[in-house]
Amino acid sequence: MSDLPRLSVDELRIDAISHEDVMRVVQYFQRNRAFLAPWEPARTSGFYSEQGWKRRVLQLMELQKHQLAYYFLIAKQDSPTVLGVISYTSMMQYPSYSCTVGYSLDQAAQGQGIMRRALATTNQWLFDNIHIHRVNAALYAMQCAQCQGVRGRWI
User: Fold this and answer.
1) 110 vs 125: CA distance, rounded Å
2) How far apart are CA 88 and CA 26, in angstroms?
3) I need a surface site. Which of 47, 59, 67, 100 has the fewest CB within 10 A?
4) What is the predicted pLDDT for the residue at 39?
5) pLDDT band with cut points at 50, 70 and 90 for residue 154
6) Cα dihedral: 83, 62, 129, 3 (round 10)
7) How far apart are CA 27 and CA 49, in angstroms?
8) What is the Cα 69 distance to its own chain's centre?
9) pTM
10) Within the chain, where are the H helices?
11) What residues have CB less than 8 Å from 59, skipping those under 6 apart?
12) Residue range 125-130: mean pLDDT, rounded
């Protein structure tokens, strides 16, 4: 699979990360640094830099090429601004056909159903194209709104 997934649902565009996305993802994490701090691991300053993300995107694209991980950016169809990210890692084929999902959503995009729709779309893409059967998610108890969304959809 050489083509990177480009998905859409309603007004949302959900694309696997590529070289052109470096500044967009840097801006997303810089903009949401304080908001995401309670849920994200401790980050070095390089995580919030263009140079750091240039290296990271190269790594992510190599993992995507080999179907070992996927990193999706969520945006509105008519805007370059990243509203959220979804990562699928620890992708296992036989015998479990499973992976782990992680995600974050822009503070200004909360409460609009964006992540629920984006997760449903990317999960379905994995089921249909990579033949994943199980998506594991670890949620913090303090993410009550997100827990409700996952519980209502998959539990």
Assistant:
1) 23
2) 19
3) 59
4) 87
5) very low
6) 80
7) 9
8) 10
9) 0.88
10) 22-31, 33-36, 50-65, 114-125, 144-154
11) none
12) 96
